[in-house]
Amino acid sequence: MTRLTPEEAEAYRRPALEALGEDDPATVQESEPELWRRLIEQAGAHLRTRPAEGEWSVLECLGHITDSELITSARYRWVLSEREPTLLGFDQTAWVARPDRAADDPALLLEVLGVLRRANVALWRRTPAADRARVGLHAERGPESYELLFRLQAGHGRLHRAQAERALAHARRPRPVG
Questions:
Q1: pTM above 0.85, yes or no
Q2: Whose CA is closest to 116, among 59, 161, 57, 62?
Q3: Structurally, how many domains does the chain consist of?
Q4: Which candidate, 128, 129, 105, 109, places its Cα nearest to that of 117?
Q5: Residue 143 sits in a domain of what CATH number?
Q6: Is 156 in contact with 16 (CB distance < 8 Å)?
């Protein structure tokens, strides 16, 4: 994994933080599993349809968010338990491209996301403000506090849900005949 410059790290974080805006990150994250459930229902037969080569389907977006929640769950706990722990990055493209990803059960992904999200929001709510400032050292992005990680995860979810909505809209577009 390549270490980003502070400017590159900020450029990476900016879209997620802008997607969150001033909204409460816990409230945003609490509502997300239900929003994903509705999107999965709406997708129906288009669940695994990619809008274009190299772009992600609705299912792949959900799989990524679930993977991200799993990784972030560990990051939160390392930051809260250890002194400036190293936080590993992960190659999201490689994880989404796993050969078995297309066979993922969306109901199971939703269940895992929901359980992890409930546990993570509960952890956030019971963590004192002083502990939210604790820092981990992300292998690519450098120092990140628990609060920043939590806010990033909320915005990140919004970004990928919007991506999934665009994938579904593309899949539903009428195709030219002939």
A1: yes
A2: 62
A3: 1
A4: 109
A5: 1.20.120.450
A6: yes
